[in-house]
Write a structure and sequence with these properties.
The protein has ten helices and 23 strands. The protein starts with a strand and ends in an 11-residue tail after the last strand. It is α+β, with helices and mostly antiparallel strands. Strands 1, 2, 8, 9, 10, 11, 21, 22 and 23 form a nine-stranded mixed beta sheet that branches. The protein has an eight-stranded mixed beta sheet with strand order 5-6-4-14-15-16-13-19.
């Protein structure tokens, strides 16, 4: 099979890039070791926020911000996206000072933040314990969505647009050829592509290694809780400075709560589970902030596997060693909101060689390139990734 672009990874980044490329007329094959959106993209918290991101991510977040209200036109569903606003709480003066400093740093961007003191916070959001929260930063245009619907929706839209999607298809090896790339995947004929996108999430490291671009990619396991349906009281997507607890309530009345990590399964580190301590800790923190949760029943828990970088910024952009290769991974638990924007950026890089959105801060060259890792002409090193994404 010969295509213009091969994409490794069927998360939200890979699927949004595939759709954007098809809209520009390119042929695309996407390979996913499991099911599209089954890892971090489909099991995350669902916060659609710009607030709290590193300042260098805000132009990209703003680009994605313009896409979210158009989901129905783009993928056929709205993904339960709602611009409810996003509130970040301070529990002490040090946290409030941190919010104020962030607001000053973001003042030159399109992110409009409103700082609230204790009295204003209590008046506008009476469901928050005023003895715990001393102030907040509010982004009125941020919101929330259902990751299970959004991730599957982008995959379905890409398939309808003509992307060849291969699920349960591990990538066994990648190599550079004179006219592009050769992708060897389990159960399908060899794929030759002029361009290759490494959007393999927590499994992206060995594919970067194969082209002499070693990166310190780690793993985190965000863990979530959902409660029974309750009377709606939480009107905005809410978190605390430092990220120790965050919560949102959907229209059905269920509250989704996060802030702790799960743990990798002993038998297979590609998957994770919530921990008893993590679940108990985050629920206790949530109840202290939101008294309405005091008697709520938690009905489900889950966790997912996410790639993380030491500086909490992703790797996005062209390879420093190999023409035609694009990297997009390492979103460190915050990729959901920016993913549709990343997809457009990837499509621009492939079709024009540049992008209108600043991404220099996300270059893979900010890490040392280990030329001893891989030759760019064979399979990725043996690791969980060698089973493909």
């Amino acid at each position: 099979m010969k295509v213009d672009v091969a994409i490794i990874g069927g998360g939200l980044v890979g699927c949004s890039a595939a759709l954007a490329l098809r809209q520009r007329g390119l042929s695309v094959a996407l390979l996913e070791r499991g099911f599209c959106g089954a890892q971090a993209s489909g099991v995350n918290y669902g916060g659609v926020r710009r607030q709290g991101r590193p300042i260098e991510q805000l132009p990209l977040a703003q680009r994605a911000h313009a896409i979210w209200p158009k989901l129905r036109q783009l993928i056929g569903i709205d993904g339960e996206f709602r611009r409810t606003g996003q509130l970040k709480l301070a529990r002490n003066e040090a946290e409030m000072a941190s919010l104020e400093a962030y607001a000053r740093g973001a003042a030159s961007t399109d992110l409009k933040l409103e700082l609230l003191g204790a009295n204003a916070l209590a008046e506008r959001f009476p469901w928050i314990d005023r003895e715990i929260a001393v102030g907040a930063s509010f982004s009125a245009d941020d919101g929330q969505a259902n990751p299970r619907l959004v991730s599957a929706g982008f995959a379905a839209a890409a398939r309808r647009a003509g992307v060849e999607i291969y699920e349960q298809t591990p990538v066994l090896g990648v190599s550079k050829e004179a006219e592009g790339f050769l992708v060897d995947a389990q159960g399908v004929p060899a794929i030759r592509a002029a361009h290759l996108v490494n959007a393999a999430g927590a499994w992206a490291g060995p594919f970067a290694d194969a082209f002499r671009e070693g990166v310190p990619l780690g793993r985190i396991y965000p863990s979530m809780i959902v409660t029974e349906p309750m009377k709606v009281f939480m009107t905005v997507n809410t978190g605390v400075e430092g990220g120790e607890v965050y919560a949102r309530q959907v229209e059905r009345g269920n509250c989704i709560i996060g802030g702790q990590r799960g743990a990798a399964r002993v038998d297979d580190a590609d998957f994770s589970r919530p921990t008893d301590v993590g679940v108990t800790t985050v629920m206790q923190r949530a109840v202290r902030l939101f008294p309405s949760l005091k008697n709520a029943h938690a009905i489900r828990f889950w966790s997912g596997t996410e790639g993380a970088m030491p500086d909490k910024n992703p790797v996005i952009g062209q390879s420093s060693t190999t023409s035609g290769l694009i990297h997009a991974f390492g979103f460190s638990g915050a990729g959901f909101q920016i993913a549709p924007g990343v997809g457009e950026v990837i499509a621009e890089l492939i079709t024009t060689g540049e992008t209108t959105t600043p991404i220099d801060a996300f270059s893979i060259t900010r890490f040392s390139v280990d030329a001893a890792k891989g030759s760019g002409a064979g399979a990725p090193p043996q690791s969980p990734q060698s089973r493909g994404t």
